[in-house]
Amino acid sequence: MAFKWREQAEAYDRHKLYEQTWVEERRKAAESDAKILNAAIGKLAQRLPSLNAVDLSPGDKIRLMDVTVRHRRILGDMAAAVARRVAAVDGHEDDDEDYPAADDVGQAAAAETSALGDGEG
Questions:
Q1: Nearest Cα to 113, choosing from 33, 30, 16, 18?
Q2: How many CB atoms sit inside 10 A of residue 74's CB?
Q3: What pLDDT does residue 29 have?
Q4: Contact, 74 vs 112, CB < 8 A?
Q5: Of the candidates 4, 72, 96, 101, which lies 20 to 30 Å from 54 by C-alpha distance?
Q6: Residue 121 above 50 pLDDT?
Q7: How far is the CA of 64 from the CAs of 44, 96, 111, in angstroms?
Q8: What is the distance between the alpha carbons of residues 100 and 78, in angstroms, rounded to a whole number?
Q9: How far apart are CA 24 and CA 15, in angstroms?
């Protein structure tokens, strides 16, 4: 039985192309999310000087800071993971284990967003 090296090579090439496409899509999504977050933070930063701290409860202040910091961490972790994955796909290193699953990142972001709206810490 002859080894089908040509078919194996073609399958490998298709797999690598598919992988590279998804890495690029994840990078674009991370950049888009970062732009949205930065815009929201910018709007908030513009409003902060005119906010009357007396009108905010301690819980509101803590929640505002907590959610902002968590979102920055999530996006920072995702950007770093995408960079590692791009390097791995390009053959510079093999770091698949550190790449967060899209579901994990999405669940973390959804939990943070729901924490903003439900009024509970």
A1: 33
A2: 21
A3: 92
A4: yes
A5: 72
A6: no
A7: 10, 34, 14
A8: 7
A9: 14
Check: CB of residue 26 under 8 Å from CB of residue 106: no
pTM of the complete model beyond 0.70: no
Q: What is the pLDDT of residues 64-98, one digit of tens each?
A: 788 878 878 887 777 777 778 777 777 665 444 44
Contact between 59 and 121 under an 8 Å Cβ cutoff? The reply is: yes
- Highest mean pLDDT range out of 17-21, 47-51, 71-75? 17-21
Virtual torsion, Cα 9, 11, 16, 17, nearest 10 deg:
110
- Tokens (6 digits) for 106: 């999405």
Q: Cα separation of 68 and 21, whole Å?
A: 30
Please give the Cα distance from 88 to 75 (Å, whole number): 20
Specify the residue for token string 């994955």. 85
Nearest to 41 by CA among 62, 65, 63: 65
